[in-house]
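Sample intake sheet
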Amino acid sequence: MKTTFLCAALALVLVPTAQAAWVSLANTPESQVLYDDALSKEGSRITVWRLTNFAKPLTNLEGKEISSEKALTTVDCASGKLANAQVMRFAGKDASGEVLNSYETPLRFTTVAAGSTDAELIQKLCTK
């Protein structure tokens, strides 16, 4: 019994995980923003992971430096609004290193500013 459990546990560890195919969305002096092209679509809503690498680290409330942020973002193409369900902030670039902050929230769709990176994401995803 122990051997079977150990083999099953090792198999889970050794199975390669799916890698995100990151697509560049925007490069500004403040950050580089990418999104995962492995889309999840349900009706007029599209969900993707969005990755932001900050040019200069941000400082959280505990005084630790945040170099990147990964957000599970849902775009509603019908309304042109966006919501984040989960956000994680990391010490390293490309969502690596220590997780400094992590939270989940119910979807609260908000209007995005014209010309913003969020507006560009909506445009790219909703015109595919």
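Comment: The mean pLDDT is 86. The chain has two helices and eight strands.
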